[in-house]
Description:
Elements: H1 29-35, H2 38-54, H3 84-98
Amino acid sequence: EYGLPPVIWGLDSVHGANYVRGAVMTPQQINLAATFNTTVSYEAGRIASKDTRAAGITWLFSPILGLALQPSWSRVYETFGEDPLVASAMGAQLIRGIQ
């Protein structure tokens, strides 16, 4: 109607919807990977998705699936670490939880 492109909103819900009142914070991805428990990763995704949708937002900026190959990178804690097998297994379950 106004000739403007639509606005798409997303939330940085990497370890929970920290911008949503009453949301549950989950461990960072590096901590999830340390458990080697894909069920924990699935539940973290499910909770973040539920809490983000409660704010009317359906797009999460999550997960971060890059490998932490450079330890001096300041965002290593947001990855599942350097092992491709662990990162892919944990990432797949986090995505399933989000969906």
